[in-house]
């Protein structure tokens, strides 16, 4: 886990002695974070210029915003947009397409925790990411249900883009093991929240 305080430039690096799993590993950082906003960010991502301050602006205009995710190229829900540049130079495309926009967000029921901003107010009321899901799968869905229960809103920023390779860690896990973990955690989730509604990604919800 790595927490950086952008106000003072102070960086605290924590190296866990063992693989704690997604939730527990991120909770190590969330416990020592001191800012008004926390960011959970996977190691298979690449951020874009201005992504932090543009994300924080959304919380300033919506005090009940609890979670905010970025637009991305690789995700299972509405956060996904289709990149049009066929030569692979995604940064050249997304800076003018997203970074030069006015504040824009769409409401969401679930955001994927490859990159998510959490307000201090929401974290203080809702608590840490549930660790009962072990190595991963469904902990982000679970947290979103807790956010909704606490009457906070969830959004996806259309003026923020974060590139996501997706699955870089789980790709090293055998397929059968991943499927067993998915099935186990789906049962855990549904025991708490009822039937899981699979994520849906539109063909391109950011057509303009």
Helix-strand category: alpha+beta
Low-confidence spans: 1-8
How many strand elements? Answer: 9
Distance between the termini: 37 Å
Task: Specify the helix fraction band.
Answer: 25-40%
Q: What is the topology, as strand order, of the major beta sheet?
A: 3-7-5-8-6
- Spatial extent as radius of gyration: 17 Å
What is the average of the pLDDT values?
Answer: 88
Strand content: 15-25%
Number of helices: 6
Shape: globular
Task: Explain this structure.
It is built from six helices and nine strands. With 208 residues, it is α+β, with helices and mostly antiparallel strands. The strands form three sheets. A five-stranded mixed beta sheet has the order 3-7-5-8-6, with helices on both faces. It has a two-stranded antiparallel ribbon with strand order 1-2. It is globular, with a radius of gyration of 17 Å.
């Amino acid at each position: 886990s790595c927490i950086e305080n952008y106000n003072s430039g102070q960086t605290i690096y924590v190296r866990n002695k063992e693989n704690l799993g997604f939730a527990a590993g991120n909770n190590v950082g969330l416990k020592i974070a001191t800012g008004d906003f926390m960011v959970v960010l996977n190691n298979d991502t690449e951020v874009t210029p201005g992504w932090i301050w543009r994300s924080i602006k959304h919380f300033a205009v919506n005090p009940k915003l609890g979670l905010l995710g970025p637009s991305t190229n690789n995700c299972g829900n509405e956060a996904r947009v289709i990149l049009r540049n066929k030569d692979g130079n995604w940064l050249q495309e997304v800076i003018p397409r997203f970074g030069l926009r006015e504040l824009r967000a769409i409401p969401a029921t679930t955001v994927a925790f490859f990159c998510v901003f959490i307000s201090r107010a929401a974290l203080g009321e809702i608590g840490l990411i549930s660790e009962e899901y072990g190595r991963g799968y469904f902990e982000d869905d679970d947290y979103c249900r807790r956010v909704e229960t606490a009457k906070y809103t969830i959004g996806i920023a259309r003026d923020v883009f974060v590139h996501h390779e997706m699955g870089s860690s789980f790709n090293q896990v055998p397929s059968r093991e991943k499927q067993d973990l998915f099935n186990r955690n789906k049962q855990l989730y549904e025991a708490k929240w009822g039937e899981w509604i699979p994520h849906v990604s539109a063909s391109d919800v950011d057509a303009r």
